[in-house]
Specification:
TPR-like_helical_dom_sf; lyase; Serine Threonine Protein Phosphatase 5, Tetratricopeptide repeat; Transglyc_AS; 54% helix; mainly alpha; peptidoglycan lytic transglycosylase activity; 2 domains; 291 residues
């Protein structure tokens, strides 16, 4: 799929890769995954490329879905090729122009109702030809040192509540970095915040969630944080530590995530998920050491 330009060196024609694409329309985290996938393709490590494209497509990137479809179509076995055609059809139906062009080029090819690749629902990436050994490139969470610098630079009234979250999170088996990402997206560490939907406090608990997790006073900082951490722990178990799904469920409710099977197509929720991922930086939750 990578385009090349030709040059003449010592009388021979050689091919040089074009510069990496710039993913203008993608949020930063998805752009990084797309770039990593593109680089893997340049190494002909198509299995690793498929894994990165799967990750970005799973979190809403039509460009990644298109590129994954092309990759499966060009380098997969029969089942993979049918999945690739189905992915192109889905991307085209959602308005991806190049996917629609690719489908036109396949005129006469039957688009079967193939299932999505398993990697889009948490399974393994498809194994394609010319696999090369590659180290585990799973993104890791933001370094603790960077989080410490961030917290230390907060105004004193916000820093006090960020420290409360850091102190309590491990006892709920929640990574303090993820808890901070959620609180930052929810209230920006304001314990008196109240949303138009009557979500309250640091972790923005709606009355039903507060009652569900035993919070009597949602504007009491420690009660609120404990309730929010209890809910996060429950969501992490429910959605197998998938940070995008957990944060989407925290914002839109677990029912919405279960109905769609992925991050719901709500602008507010998708913006929220990207904000959490940009802070936390890893697609999967890393449990803290037992306190």
């Amino acid at each position: 799929m990578a385009l090349c330009v030709s040059a003449t060196v010592a009388g021979q024609t050689v091919e040089s890769p074009l510069p990496a694409p710039v993913w203008h329309d993608e949020p930063p985290q998805r752009a990084r995954w797309l770039h990593d996938a593109w680089q893997a393709e340049q190494r002909h490590d198509r299995t690793q490329a498929a894994a990165w494209y799967c990750l970005a497509a799973r979190h809403g990137s039509l460009e990644a879905q298109h590129r994954l479809g092309r990759l499966l179509l060009e380098h997969g076995q029969t089942q993979h090729r049918q999945e690739g055609i189905a992915l192109l059809a889905q991307a085209a139906a959602l308005g991806h122009h190049r996917a629609a062009q690719d489908l036109l080029a396949l005129q006469g090819t039957q688009v079967l109702q193939a299932q999505q690749p398993a990697c889009l629902t948490g399974g393994a990436a498809p194994v394609l030809e010319h696999v090369t050994a590659a180290p585990d490139a799973t993104p890791r969470p933001v370094p603790h040192e960077e989080v410490e610098r961030y917290v230390a630079e907060l105004p004193m009234h916000k820093r006090r509540h960020a420290r409360l979250i850091q102190r309590l999170a491990p006892s709920y088996a929640v990574d303090p970095r993820l808890a901070l990402a959620i609180a930052r997206a929810e209230s920006d560490f304001d314990p008196s915040a109240v949303s138009p939907r009557n979500a309250r406090g640091l972790m923005q608990l709606v009355p039903g969630t507060a009652e569900r997790f035993g919070v009597r006073d949602a504007l009491h900082p420690e009660q609120n944080v404990r309730g929010g951490l209890s809910y996060l722990r429950w969501l992490l178990q429910r959605f197998d530590d998938d940070v995008a799904l957990v944060s989407a469920a925290y914002n839109a409710g677990e029912g919405a995530v279960e109905r769609y099977g992925h991050v719901p197509p709500y602008a507010e929720t998708r913006t929220y998920v990207q904000r959490v991922l940009q802070f936390y930086r890893a697609p999967r939750h890393v449990a803290p050491a037992t306190p």
